[in-house]
Amino acid sequence: MSARISKRQMKEDTFISSMLRAWEWVRGHERVLFIGLIAVVVVVALGAWGAYARRQSRERAAAKFADAVMIFRTGDLKTAEDLFAMIVDQHRGTREAAYAEYFSGKCALESGRSLDAAQAFDRYLARAGKHPFFRDAAMEGKAVALSNEHKYQEAADTYLALAAKTKTNDFMKATYLRRAAANLRLANQTQRAIELLSDLLESSTGTERRDIEIELEILKG
């Protein structure tokens, strides 16, 4: 009579059989496994290299931007504008490239090229959702540029949009509304300018209120 096989022996036999089958499968698919391992290594290496390259690019962009701002502050607008344009071209997608668009607008505005300035401010404003630091300044610059180009209605609309939703310069709201009214008058929209200043008068005090009263007297003739 043969000896009965214990449950433990059965489990061991099953385990050994499974291991042997697995080993045979590995041996039969060595090439596929090797290629898969290489692919994983390559993906990891590319990811690491990409992260390093992006970090290096951001550092270079920051260094160039700092240099360009320093030159801008010295008054060398042509050199500064060239550097800002280089940052935009070479470091697209970075915060510095967005800010460089704003400073390109500043350079153009201070150089008397109002149309170029308005376009540069618009390019920055298109990216200001992610990089809003200069948003109010860019809108103000755009309004000034449009007014310089005698586009008074567009300038007024820009000031009104800025006053309605300031990000950093809330204390300038009344000033923006008064500038909007001035541009509305130049756009032959005197009645609308009067209505705007009349609304502003209700919340004004002191010398500001007196200045608005004078402006209203002039507009009403």
Give structural notes.
With 221 residues, this protein is mainly α. It is 80% helix and 0% strand. The protein has 10 helices and no strands. It has helices spanning 7-28, 30-74, 77-90, 95-110, 114-125, 135-148, 152-164, 173-186, 190-201, 206-220. The longest helix has 45 residues, at 30-74. It is elongated. The model has no long low-confidence stretch (mean pLDDT 86).
Task: List strands and helices in order, with pairings.
Blueprint: H1 7-28, H2 30-74, H3 77-90, H4 95-110, H5 114-125, H6 135-148, H7 152-164, H8 173-186, H9 190-201, H10 206-220
Helix pairs in contact: 2-3, 2-4, 3-4, 4-5, 4-6, 5-6, 6-7, 7-8, 8-9, 9-10
Short structural description:
This protein has helices at 7-28, 30-74, 77-90, 95-110, 114-125, 135-148, 152-164, 173-186, 190-201, 206-220.
Tell me the overall shape.
elongated
Query: Could you state the order of secondary-structure elements as H and E?
Result: HHHHHHHHHH
CA-atom Rg in angstroms? 33 Å
Subunit arrangement of the protein: single chain
Strand content: under 5%
Percent in helix: over 70%
The secondary-structure class comes to mainly alpha
The main β sheet shows up as: none
Between the first and last Cα atoms, what is the distance in angstroms? 127 Å
Mean pLDDT comes to 86
Strand tally is 0
Instruction: Tally the helices.
Output: 10
Give unreliable regions as ranges: none
